[in-house]
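Chain A, query sequence.
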Amino acid sequence: LSSVKNLLIGIREKYENLVEKNDLEAKFAELITIVNDAVNNHDINSYVAEVFNFYKHKIGTKFLSYKQGLIFLKILYPICPFISEDIYKEIYKGKYLISDDGWI
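Chain A, predicted structure.
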């Protein structure tokens, strides 16, 4: 188990080092604010546009940390619930549902 734990730590460090963490963290914080405003204003078009714009222009081919990946799944959930839920269930081996985890 310790070798698996060390392997996971190494993978996490590798992925987190590939992304400018502060830059991407700030972009995620901005996205969360924007999509929350869209939800509060019942503006689904802006919500969808911002999520896809974020994916296309901010994430691109960058690797996300585990936490960032889960945040993105939660943001994606309202517009792609089945895909997001399937990925989330796969991550947690069916123990948890994204719909039970609460909003970010």
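Helices lie at 2-18, 21-40, 44-59, 66-76, 81-91, 98-101. The CA atoms of residues 14 and 63 lie 9 Å apart.
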